[in-house]
Amino acid sequence: MNSQKPTYEELEQRIAELESRENLSLHCIPDLESDTTEKSTFFINELFNSILSGVVVVDAANRKIIDVNSTALEMLGRSKKNVIGKECHNFICPAERGKCPIADLGQTVDRSERELLTINSGRICILKTVKTISIGERSYYIESFIDISEQKEAEQAKEQLIRELYDALEKVKTLSGLMPICAKCKKIRDDKGYWNNLEAYIEKNSEASFSHGLCPECSEELYGDKQWYIKGRKKRKNNKK
Description:
Blueprint lengths: L7 H15 L14 H14 L3 E6 L5 E4 L1 H7 L35 E6 L5 E13 L2 E10 L1 H23 L16 E2 L5 E2 L1 H8 L10 H8 L3 H14 L1
Antiparallel strand pairs: 1-2, 1-5, 3-4, 4-5, 6-7
């Protein structure tokens, strides 16, 4: 089973396919007009509920939901009887009354990133398209959408990682170029002409700090003739055997 998440291009293709399905008319279906009303209704219902995108039909006059497909119900976490007849504001759409993006604000919602109110997750990110159709004297909004919450979470995680890397790079001050250093005492001359202790210079110009110890050569030079050091050296050799 392929667990790879769909890309935005693939998501948009799904929306396009959905729109083409929504535009199907009965005369485009072979022999459907000559079929019985019961079979026609069954066909339309099967088609409606087989779409992998969520679809909600809203009465444009009173903003009440008059139909919803199985995919939308699954995303909402609700049953059909608890959705039909409900006003879409603050039920599936976070927009307040009087601020509907389509009816009140005159916006075009076409593959737009929006939010869907659900029972399980509270809000999920969706890619949404809304079309207006008229049947007789009534108008309806056909809202189709797909869940892109996982893609948005992945994007946010990526952006967070980029910010963290950027912050880390900002903190790192790299010492580069030629640095004049005394051949004897190892002091470094800064760009103002002052000679600085090596440790102080590096700590000042980078995020590095120092802890002190002695290398084997310096230990021998300083303490090689001391009995405690000689005993310790013999003990260390025996422990290695």
